[in-house]
Specification:
Strand content: under 5%
Shape: flat
Helix content: over 70%
Largest sheet: none
Number of domains: 1
Number of strands: 0
Oligomer: single chain
Structural class: mainly alpha
Distance between the termini: 18 Å
Length: 180
């Protein structure tokens, strides 16, 4: 880990602890900005460390050359390593599903009792807000898992020359992107 990343990681941890203690929106907004900066530094360091290797792979793809295992690993590292890491360490998937099940159960309970009062309507709104908060996490997790499966079902050497050229541009653009 670079010195800059080590320093920013320490700042994120400190700010996170302070945010949890102060319980203020301003503290969590500041934490969000620091996390965004740490993510940016990690991406830029990754791009810098592997820039030469990826240029070789881009050249092979453009020329239609056969990719060896090292080349395939580099491409996988760029295209799906983040997803693999996320899926591996996101231990909340079952918790999210349980939370959705619980909230839907509460919604059914409100429905079964009949929606008659303002409080019932406000309860439905609160349940919907909670459901909307969980759904992006579970959807992102599943998309990442599906992205991994889709990638692993293909052999890069069997791609047509046109698809190899497109893949070369994707790899090149990802290595130059600030959104990798």
């Amino acid at each position: 880990m670079t010195n800059k990343i080590t320093t920013t990681t320490a700042q994120v941890i400190k700010q996170g602890s302070q945010s949890l203690q102060t319980d203020s929106s301003e503290a969590f907004e500041h934490l969000y900005l620091q996390i965004h900066e740490l993510e940016k530094q990690a991406r830029e360091t990754f791009q810098y460390q592997f820039r030469r290797d990826y240029l070789v792979v881009v050249g092979k793809l453009r020329n239609g050359d056969r990719l060896d295992e090292h080349d395939k690993q580099l491409i996988a590292q760029l295209l799906i390593a983040d997803a693999k890491s996320y899926v591996k360490y996101a231990g909340d998937y079952e918790t999210w599903k349980d939370q959705i099940d619980h909230l839907l159960g509460e919604l059914k309970s409100v429905q079964d009792q009949g929606v008659r009062t303002t409080d019932d309507l406000l309860h439905i709104q609160a349940l919907c807000r909670d459901l909307k908060a969980v759904l992006p996490d579970i959807t992102f997790y599943l998309r990442e898992r599906e992205r991994i499966q889709g990638y692993e079902q293909n052999d890069l050497n069997n791609l047509s020359p046109e698809l190899k050229s497109i893949l070369a541009e994707i790899v090149k653009n990802m290595m130059e992107s600030d959104k990798m």
